[in-house]
Amino acid sequence: MAVSPSASLPPAREIPSSFSASLRQWWATGEKASAVAEERLFRRLPFFQKALDDSPVVATSTRVVLDRPKQYLNTLSITSTRPAPSAPPPLVLMPGYGAGIGFFFQNVMALSQWAGRRGSAVYLVDWLGMGRSARVPFTIKSPRKDIPGRVQEAESFFIDSLEEWRVKMKLDKFALAGHSLGGYLSVAYALKYPDRVSKLILLSPAGVPRDPNQTTAVERELESAPHSSSSSVELASQHKVDDIRAEQVAAKPPQSRSRRLFMYLWEEGWSPFQVVRSTFFWGPMLIGKYSSRRFSGLTDEDTRDMHDYILNITLAKGSGEYCISHILSPGAHARMPLVDRMAALKIPVTFVYGDHDWMDPEGGEQSVENLRKAGNGNARSYIVNGAGHHVYLDNSTAVNQLIVRELDRP
Q: Tens digits of per-residue pLDDT, 261-274?
């Protein structure tokens, strides 16, 4: 089902600063408001939902319906109006935990230009149970002590639906890029369906290193990375990795009572979004504080649009978010680390971290080395300056250039 374009959209709601404003926003959330909030972000594209005479691409928003009842994946398709017979495989871009494709609003123009230039396509897809995809029940049958069983079930919930989406879209092979948990799941997909992925681009991927002491607490995501207009990207060096890890250690919070409570709730299957939803009318204010603090480098208009979008997808029915305690342990390290699994990959793999990231870039470095030892010399790790965990948004110029370069790399 496509989102119908409108002649004009209502302005994004202001970030609430009072209980009454928060109450009004909470009351107004829903599927329709969510669709409008996402459309507001993507209408920055002049070719959104309409084919211009001189545009090499057109962008359309659809629900790709899967075979299982009430399941669909929300998709933004950016396709060439002049597809080339020898075009490279399209790019499929997947968001992180609890996020949605709207987070990539500053990346779509550059990626659209790549699709137009190469006669290919770009697809932005919400994971099942997240963003604006179907919020179906998430259940795990394996007992708590069966870690491999829990991980396999949780991963399959997402990657099997992505494979079904691929079949529906009639794609033979594609380049797969994912952020954070989306990066983790992208690797899991490539391991299970190796013939369908031409290359992997992992943006601050979760679950890579095996040592939990080297991954700092998720609270660092709430801090805005120092804003930088620099588009510099550098190959990861041991010196740079050590600097980032030293910053992570310095920012690691003590084991307070609230921290212990957080770990208990995590193990019991709670999610941060469940906590926000449980505040009811106060939810928009909590999300507003997060939006203002974390995305302070954006313009006022972009921040308002992001707040409206995050508000709607966060307050939607809980679903895929409950995977987190089965895939990751408290502190965001994987129960089955990717560094021990990805040597089986035979495709190019690119790791991208921010220089103020809270994901440990050492995991990427170790993975590159493991891939090289396994005979795969097409693995690299990069550090993007002026960026934190949301590296694609904190320094979009640098990341856009890097993604395009990696897509064009043989």
A: 655 565 666 677 66
